Amino acid sequence: MVSIAEYSQEPKYTIKVLSDRTGVRPVTLRAWERRYDLLDPGRLDNNYRLYSERDIQVIRWITHRLDEGLSISNAVREYRGLRESGIWPEALPTVLAPQPSQAPRHPTSYYADQLFTALTGHDEAQAKQIVDAIQSMYDIQTIFLEVFYPCLVEIGEAWYRGEIRIATEHFASAFIRGILMNLLQAFPIYSEAPRLLIGCAPEEFHEIAPLMLSVLLRREGYQVEYLGADLPVEDLVFYAEDTSPDMIILSASFDESARPLYRMQAKLDQLPGKPKLGYGGRYFNQNEAARKDLDGIFLGTSLDEAVQNVHDLLD
Ligand code: B12
Fold this sequence. Notes:
The protein has 15 helices and seven strands.
């Protein structure tokens, strides 16, 4: 048997080749890369990623564990555990290499692609059918992280490449936002449970992640109030004084949205209940240094981590 360590680290393959060689669709590979930080691809001048032979073997090892019934998060955990103990897993024999023509290996990535096609085709009826189908098959966390998230990332990239109109991006995000709002309202509100205010930092309009987090935390029994986009800090502090939340959770993608949060925990500390400030989002995922400077609590790079951290902080 050959260890994965014996494969070259030289970055030379595009995501298309990685996809063809592993049978995993590009949309799923990108989602895994963002979510699990699994590979560390090189970059071309135009910022395109380049992968090595070793990356190919890592993805093949992961997909083999998925075929054996592990969830992606458990497969990654197992891989990380091995690596932290200084062990490289054994590469799979080449004969097992999946062929590009095979059916999609992961049903959720298949649905992410289907939803992308329906939404970018403005086919709302079809998108609704897909959502109904996945709701009967998967739990909501899987739907959020493995269908909605990669679908939205792909929509963002298609917009960035100029392949879809702004109207299409708005249609798609409005559709998903609507589904999330319905889910939020379908869960009961427990008035005795810890109270959380969740929304977007000032000038932040990317609502979907904080809305997903609201659904996941309300599902866990927290008394969640979702406050939406672009919340001014001063007003939130007054509102916290009126309503005594245990925690305020804000999402920020950009520096301009993150900056006003730096003064916020000090203001909250002057209130009788001293509510905690929890934060996260694209900006903090990309700027580790910013997390150190902010007084509140960084809740993690992903929403599943955030749910766990809220439990640890409030229970
Ligand atoms: C839909 C969308 C919009 C919609 C949002 C509508 C709505 N109601 O939410 C609208 C049209 C408003 C919009 C506007 C803009 N957008 Co936009 N948008 C998107 C898109 C396609 C999807 C966003 C989304 O919901 N993603 C899914 C969620 C689940 O992922 P996420 O937000 O990244 O959150 C993850 C983590 O960051 C984290 N997280 C997020 N919040 C929190 C909070 C906590 C507490 C924790 C723990 C974790 C956490 O967990 C999530 C899951 O892992 C993305 C593409 C993408 N890659 O995401 C672009 C994208 C984010 N947008 C982008 C840009 C550039 C803009 C605009 C500047 C465009 C413009 N010129 O107007 C404006 C900025 C508006 C503003 N000031 O906020 C860029 C950002 C690039 C960058 N520098 O990082 C992206 C990546 C598109 C791209 N490929 O270039 N956008």
